[in-house]
Known about the structure:
The structure holds two protein chains of two kinds. Chain A is mainly α. Chain A has one domain. Chain A has helices at residues 3-35, 45-51, 54-60, 66-74, 83-95, 103-121, 130-151, 156-182, 194-206, 210-217, 222-231, 239-254, 264-277, 281-287, 289-312, 327-330. In chain A, helix 1 (3-35) runs antiparallel to helix 7 and helix 12 (239-254) packs antiparallel against helix 13 (264-277). By secondary structure, chain B is α+β, with helices and mostly antiparallel strands. In chain B, the strands form seven sheets. A five-stranded mixed β-sheet of chain B has the order 3-23-22-19-18. A four-stranded parallel β-sheet of chain B has the order 8-7-12-13. Helices cover 30% and strands 22% of the residues of chain B. Chain B has a domain at 350-410: Dna Ligase, domain 1, CATH 3.30.1490. Chains A and B meet through helix 1 and helix 6 of A and helix 9, strand 8 and strand 10 of B.
Amino acid sequence: MLSRVADSVYWMTRYIERAENVARFVDVNLHLMLDLPRDTEQQWEPLVRTTGDRELFEATYESYTASNVIRFLTFDSTYVNSIYGCAASARDNARSVREVISSEMWTQLNRFYLMVRTAAFGNQDFDYAPHEVFSQVKVAGHLFEGVMDATMSHGEAWHFGRMGRLLERADKTTRILDMKYFILLPDVSYVGTPYDNIQWAALLQSASALEMYRKKYGRISPRSVVEFLLLDMEFPRAVRHCLKVAEDSLRAITGTPSGSYANRAEQRLGRSCANLDFTSTEEILAIGVHEFLDRLQSEINEVGDAIFEAFFATEPTPTEAPRKPTEEDEDEDTGMQIQTQGA
Amino acid sequence: MRFDGYSLDGFFDELFEPDGTPRAGGELLVELLSRLPEGELLRRQAAAEQALLQLGITFTVTGDDEGTERIFPFDVIPRILSAADFATIERGLRQRIFALNEFVNDIYHDQKIVADGVIPEFVIRSAASYLPEIVGLEAPRDIWCHISGTDLVRDSDGTFYVLEDNLRTPSGVSYVLENRHVLKRTFPQVFTATNVRPVDDYPNRLLETLQHLAPDGVHSPTVVVLTPGRYNSAYFEHSFLARQMGVELVEGRDLVVIDGWVCMRTTKGLERVHVIYRRLNAEFLDPLVFRPDSVLGVPGLMDAYRAGRVALANAPGTGVADDKVIYAYVPEIVKYYTGQVATLPNVETFVCWEDDQRSYVLSHLEELVVKVANESGGYGMLVGPHSTQAEREEFARRIDADPRNYIAQPTVALSRAPVIVDGKLEGRHVDLRPFVLYGEDITVLPGGLTRVALKKGSLVVNSSQGGGSKDTWVLAN
């Protein structure tokens, strides 16, 4: 298939998944803030940190108030990774591949975009019922995935779409987990108290993981949450599961048997999968969850670069192309930047 | 819905005889429309519009940064063409397209028609769409005008005239197919009983026409549709035709010329392309040959074309026949290349570069329609009877300043057809754009785009000027 078409399908699903996850982030933070003791300060800056786009935020907004951060992440039409920005980019990509996707997918995506646009620019008082909009965004994401699975042939284009969605989801699950690192408890003494547990539960909830987690582990413990969201093989938002399915799609596209690689994308993704297969939760905790997540995000970004290079690049890219983590990335206060189309 | 109060106002009506009885072939439709319960026709109209919207048959409104898409206004009452009328159209268009193809081939080669004094050389050279870069180039199989959509109008006595030739990248055929799709659902019984000729095999025939152009020795040619991109107002049609033919829809940036061959960039590497149905104006095709600022085209494409390694449909250069001054010469052109009188007459046309014709035009602006020679889409027109004094003075100035660029025609009393307006039926002016394919043979699609001027009394049917469309039913014998 055409490289441009593959690129558009891949980014269409990535942007839809991204919109859905931004809704998850903001929603979890709203919950967390409501659960904090009354006199503690609201924390909205961590939310922007997890996106790695603090500079963009600070260029437009003065302070990290709830309404500024929510506006930035949801309806800021100048911010490409806001829910609105993602919906618009997804639709734009879909429009250019109308002959490849099914009419049902187009209709569903259109409906999603119009819903977000109405929420963003309509007269309704958003501050009044934010949860409702976020749950609509999540439902729209699920619907699109279902419609795509049920109405589009599971051929090459579909695999590009699924690969995009799962890489994005893997990245976002790492960032949801990372929020716990950024959001501070009011006091060290809160560690291990009900507040701490409430935060972990809210975090699981935002990944739609709470019920499935409970079935498997019952009680909430930080160790098990980390294990579940990173290493679980069956939960569809767990990073290991996401990367494995993404790898399946990648190999369906290229036809390369597993255990070997024919391009850098297969090599990088295969290595990340193997790494998760053979890493224990204890090792992750020993490295430090945040440090481990940072490294994982950087690996996922490299896979993204390698996919671009192997399938979409219209001109051969110089070998320097993969983005090396800069010092700033390693600064523990800064989140790893989110990739965007045409990087 | 009744036809009570529907009046012909002295115009030729596509559905009714002057005495108010239905024309042959229209009886069933009129009978159905007359006995539909109150509100039912409107309900069917609404359902048809909804179906078009859901099918995504939309065009992009230019200049709207939200990228709003609208449906092309559509009226559910079909326009019916008798077998005899269509036979005339078919004969006339085959003759005309054959002659125009010969003409384009001739003027880019020996210009015999100029040497024989039929058409002055300067008229050709001064046509904005004449491409000197094409001189001497061979078109594969000597076919230049593979796909055309000629605009026909009918005057008060029912005679068909050619109003405009469209040999560049005529659009609208997707509406013909989709309108039909929707109308079959809207009037299933009438449709079955009326014996309408099908239009659905157009994409197949188009593909055959394109495959016919493949370079020698290529047995299963790769055909693509080249679009300017998703912001083009006809993008839906480009995407539709690619989907219907089962070929790739490409943009200029998807193509690259390597070692003299045109290739498309795929996820599995480069793949050769043999035939390009280009929906991009010739000037944008290759920045190395035509407009250097074009980012929509493919550098080196014309070299590959010249070497016979890729075919382009339509061939670059055909636009010269769309020039409205050259249009005035088409009856002579038909006679010159076929030895026959044109079956479909032109609308009488005055060319302003000739002094006596210009002075006639300038003194009769109130009665005439003045057009710019190289514009299409209904832009840059003066409709004399509907114009103001100031507009006429402005056009007189423009004609004096650049007479070669203007032609004038008498106002044709375009035929009308019934249209639903505010829940009632009223007559509106229509034209007809049949689509002609030139492959191994020249074929005319038995149907066509009937465009309607939805504004009361308006004679301008272009979609950019508030026009809509109707399904066109060509009756079988």
